[in-house]
UniProtKB/TrEMBL annotation:
Source organism per UniProt: Paracoccus fontiphilus
Protein name in the entry: Sarcosine oxidase subunit gamma
Residues annotated as signal peptide: none
SUPFAM superfamilies with a match to the protein in the record: Folate-binding domain
InterPro entries per UniProt: SoxG, TrmE/GcvT-like
């Protein structure tokens, strides 16, 4: 679902806000990863940048003991995590209000991202995700398809990122 509040509709790239979601920052020691994953009903991948999905939720491995979990708003993952705490000590923090998610799609999306991101986005496989920077803002970039990305950006950096996206989209459109 998308929230059309901030949609820019000029091709070759469409930028739109996605609906709010539950976002959880999870830290758990590798020895307890499987136990907590079972309690959450979600595989917690072990390779940095890999994702897993189940029951409408997604888990992204950000580090050896760090995951970002995204699920539809209203999903209760805190209760099963609390119930498993004795067997799998962990830190689970709701960061839902900290970030927004933008969908970036279209034939020139790789050019748009390359303008402000030092990472080789074209080499990022579909289905992967990564923590990176977009200009000076730390973002999580999810590659959902060959020309379809999601970008999680801190709410406080959103105006700056939106401004850059608009500027680069204008430059790309002028060059086509």
């Amino acid at each position: 679902m998308t929230n059309q509040k901030h949609q820019f509709d000029a091709s070759p790239v469409v930028v739109e806000d996605l609906a709010p979601a539950l976002r959880l920052s999870l830290r758990v020691k590798p020895a307890h990863r499987e136990t907590l994953g079972r309690a959450l009903g979600l595989d917690l991948p072990t390779r940095v940048g890999s994702r897993a999905a189940a029951n409408g939720a997604e888990a992204l491995c950000l580090g050896p003991d760090e995951w970002l979990i995204v699920a539809p708003e209203g999903t209760d993952l805190a209760s099963p995590a609390r119930a498993a705490y004795a067997d799998a000590p962990h830190s689970l923090v709701d960061i839902s209000d900290r970030e927004i998610t933008l969908r970036l799609s279209g034939p020139a999306v790789l050019d748009l991202l390359a303008a402000c991101c030092p990472r080789n986005i074209a080499a990022m496989p579909v289905g992967a995700a990564a923590r990176t920077v977009f200009d000076s803002a730390t973002v999580i970039l999810w590659r959902d398809g060959p020309t379809d990305f999601r970008m999680d950006v801190w709410r406080s950096f959103a105006p700056h990122v939106r401004s850059l996206l608009t500027q680069v989209r204008t430059e790309i459109a002028a060059g086509l």
